[in-house]
Amino acid sequence: KDRPTVLLVGNPNCGKTSLFNELSGCRAFVGNYPGGVIEAARAGVETPDGPVELIDLPGVYRLGGASLEEKLAMDYLCRSGVRAIVSVVDSLNLDRHLYLTLQLWHFHLPVILVLNMSDEADAALLSFDIPAFEAMLGVRIVRTDALRRKGMEELLACIGQAAYRPSGYPAFRKPEYGEQTEQVLDFIAHTVESSGLPRQKEPFSYIAARLLDGNAAMVARYAEMGEEGRRLLEMIEDCRTELSRQMGLPAPEILSSKRYGLIRGLLEEVQGGDGVSRIRRS
Ligand code: BGO
Fold first, then answer.
1. Residue 89, CA atoms < 13 Å, CB-side half-sphere
2. Residue-number span of the structural domain to which 197 is assigned
3. For 258-280, how does the pLDDT look when each residue is reduced to its tens digit (9 = 90+)?
4. ipTM above 0.90, yes or no
5. What is residue 105's DSSP assignment?
6. In a domain, 20, yes or no
7. Which residues' Cβ are closer than 6 Å to ligand 1?
8. Does 252 count as an annotated binding residue?
9. 162 plus 236 within the same structural domain
10. Which long-range contacts (CB under 8 A, 24 or more apart) does 230-233 make?
11. Nearest-10 crossing angle of helices 251-270, 130-137
12. Residues 69 and 24 in one domain
């Protein structure tokens, strides 16, 4: 079967399962994955451009953690055959939910940003400058209310376009972390790529970001690759330490603090309406 795969990703409780059920016409369950077995629900879905295989990944707050949910999400994101990502966020919690969205840049796939819970945003008098929001991120944005089935046709049309006509779809804009950080990330990615060490499933830019974070699982992987792996980690450690000194931040906090900074700046530009001051205070 050659149906293009489209992944639904999002934080827990963003309404991802409700959306999946609406799009797929399947109402089997809404809720968290029952204890123990974690698997991704999947369904064939018709779009105006043709059928896609929609996969509902378990809810995760970010990529890179050691939980089974995060590993499963990463595994799907690295599979071939994935043509687009639907990043579902809760419209009232964009400051936290967009963190995961920014991490999707690494996969170089078309991203549809779904502002779910639009009913709650309306009730809170929160509005968005959608064209500016789309331009700043390099995505298509669809506002949905999964409970009342609002925005589903538009979402299906976006999914179809992203999966079947990607050349006309915007390219996700690279989150810019500043010159010093970018230089270190490029250096790490290049060093890993040219090392001759076994190719990992994740994109090099993603591996570089995790190594800059000092992500335990990623560091352990390279540490287990023998002398060359350990030499690579030492080289990386030197530039981590230097960047950390320059930024005045512990290395594991550099990228996350940059990401939250980018999100704050973005929301200041695109979020409007009487609800903003209330959201900011909460
Ligand atoms: C309960 N608008 C509103 N208002 N609510 C929504 C929307 C929306 O657009 N989309 C989803 N919800 P999941 P994850 C619930 O289950 O799909 C609601 O984790 C309840 N349940 O109905 O499970 C949705 O898959 C009792 O709410 O999210 C669900 O991403 C009381 O958001 C919750 C109140 O949706 C999470 C809510 C027994």
1. 22
2. 179-248
3. 999 999 999 999 998 776 766 65
4. yes
5. G
6. yes
7. 10, 12-18, 30-31, 59, 116-117, 119-120, 144-147
8. no
9. no
10. 232/191, 232/192, 232/195, 232/197
11. 150
12. yes
